[in-house]
Design a protein that fits this description.
77 residues; mainly beta; SH3 type barrels; 40% strand
């Protein structure tokens, strides 16, 4: 995931499904290339590279960096 998209998710009030290694997470904070995430399935927290995060679309069961307006995966993914 790109830094700008993570920033948009943090600012947005809508729920966005973000994943790390096939596990759902919420983003707590970002610092340059790292994000502090909390895992939804337990109380674990971890610092991860932003580029290792991705969005998951429950409707289409697709994963990847989605275009915020269309919900489609960009061609360069």
């Amino acid at each position: 995931m790109e830094y700008q998209r993570v920033y948009e998710i943090l600012r947005n009030k809508e729920k966005t499904d973000v994943m790390y290694q096939d596990r759902p997470v919420w983003i707590q904070e970002i610092n340059q290339h790292m994000a502090k995430v909390g895992f939804i399935d337990n109380f674990e927290e971890k610092d991860v590279y932003i580029e290792d995060l991705y969005e998951y679309d429950n409707n289409t069961e697709q994963r990847g960096p989605f275009n915020n307006k269309t919900g489609k995966i960009p061609h360069d993914f």
